[in-house]
Design brief:
alpha/beta; Rossmann fold; three-stranded antiparallel sheet; globular
């Protein structure tokens, strides 16, 4: 595998802040502590006008919409831990997901949780107060921003997250996290692409699980069997009890798919992560196309069009 000298677009181990395994952490921060943690990162300023993906060839925090007056369903997109761009790299996969959403009749709001706060990466832990709590806040505030527009169907707003963003999606689907950090309504549905279902152990704060048992939002979780960075077994072992208890979660594991299977410009990326695991990314067009199909079919079922 070739080595690429960039900040990986995907979620690496948080330098001892998380562990994987079968142990389940406590309930984590209470509502007051969650709000305080999220508030440490300044609120994002979301775009006030919509554009079309064809107008831009690099990813940035923009709101994209189909032609017409709508109202359209909407999809908030949460990026991987490397953000949307660096001086030497562009997160082409996130721009492509925005294009795919618009092509299927969705408004797409692509979040940038890092750049506006002067953070370059959260692959090895929080930077400039960009924590998971801040990420959940960003996603929920993005949904509230979308509800201001007449061309958005206010009851059909979903979240799709990738790696770090997928972990944000898992937490936003939690009754405790989502209910605490939402200023208005929550998401009608959420999807998590190759998340890490880890136990997070912040310094000087209660530990918590990314995959919680109080998920109450329809949630699709897509994983790769060959993913050594965010192993699917961690998610399956944590989410199956929630599913048995009635949580609205759907799981699918793609055979022979690695982390970041949709990242064409990271095809061949290789590294050893903080835990000593060999990590390799392979772009897989077939899995990328099938995961898009599964995503949008799931959204159609979870938030059907009004009759």
């Amino acid at each position: 595998m070739r080595k690429v000298r960039i900040v990986a677009a995907c979620c690496a181990a948080w330098c001892g802040l998380f562990t994987a395994g079968s142990a389940v952490a406590g309930d984590g921060p209470d509502a007051s502590a969650l709000r305080e943690l999220a508030a440490r990162a300044p609120d994002l300023e979301f775009p006030g006008t919509a554009t079309t993906p064809a107008e831009f060839d690099s990813p940035r925090m923009l709101m994209y919409k189909p032609e017409g007056a709508g109202p359209f369903p909407a999809l908030v997109l949460a990026h991987q831990c490397g953000g949307l761009n660096t001086p030497h790299w562009q997160n082409a996969s996130m721009l492509q997901w925005a294009r795919d959403a618009v092509a299927r009749g969705y408004v797409a709001l692509l979040i940038d949780s890092l750049g506006p706060r002067g953070a370059s990466s959260v692959c090895f832990g929080p930077q400039n107060n960009v924590t998971f709590a801040a990420g959940v806040k960003d996603a929920l505030q993005a949904a509230e921003h979308l509800r201001r527009f007449d061309f958005v169907d206010k009851g059909r707003i979903a979240l799709a997250g990738y790696s770090w963003g997928a972990m944000v999606a898992l937490l936003a689907s939690s009754r405790h996290w989502g209910g605490t950090l939402a200023r208005g309504g929550r998401f009608a549905a959420a999807a998590a692409f190759y998340p890490g279902c880890f136990t997070i152990r912040p310094r000087n704060a209660p530990e918590y699980e990314i995959a919680r048992q109080d998920i109450d939002t329809p949630l699709l979780v897509l994983m790769g069997a060959d993913d050594t960075e965010t192993p699917p077994a961690d998610c399956v072992s944590r989410l199956e009890p929630a599913i048995k208890a009635g949580a609205p979660v759907q799981l699918h594991v793609y055979p022979q798919a690695t982390h970041c299977w949709d990242c064409r410009n990271l095809d061949g990326y290789s590294k050893v992560d903080v835990r000593g695991n060999r990590v390799a990314y392979r772009y897989n067009r077939e899995v990328t196309e099938d995961s898009a199909r599964r995503l949008f079919e799931f959204l159609e079922r979870a938030m059907p069009r009004p009759h």
